[in-house]
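Check my protein:
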Amino acid sequence: MAIFGLAVPPVVAAQDFGIMNSAETINRGNFKLMANPIVVFGEGNADNDLGVGLVAGYGMTDRFDVEGKVAIFDDVTFFGADAEYWLLQDEPVDVSVIGGFHAGRSDGFDTTAFDFTVLGSGLVAPRLELYGGLDVSRNSVSDADVTFTTAHLVPGIEYAISPEIDFVAEVGLALNDDSVHYLSVGIAYYLR
């Protein structure tokens, strides 16, 4: 059990994909491709970890999209998918909910998780949106009776460089002991 406890922390401490978008969903019939480096800040004596997230998404309706995701770090790779529904649209603050799942694969232990995010955003300038979300993930370690929850408060910005390209940046603030702070920036490209 002690060996198990020493091997699990790298998997537990890794951040998966982040939120990396405002509360607007992908426009109906459009595709989204995105790449975002992620810096996960180590706690205590742990080193910071650098990874990259890759996303492909599709707008199913005016209020609903789906995305497939991969996040690659030195010691773990995450694969996942989510669906986002835009609850409040064309209001001073837009609100969406996101539900999904992901699996983490590492040399030592594998994890599976269910994810839930509540996200709000609003324009502060013609091409600049501020967003904030609560991102929660319930994780299980495969082949072990270990579960843990990560929770982050995530403020971020989305800036429209052009109609096809957005710059996105966010900070994930850890809300519990099983979570770690992270920073991510990225570029989203939309095929319209």
Observations:
- Confidence is low (pLDDT under 50) at residues 1-13.
- Strands lie at 31-40, 49-59, 64-72, 76-88, 94-106, 111-125, 128-141, 146-160, 165-174, 182-191.
- The domain at 2-191 is CATH 2.40.128.90 (Lipocalin).
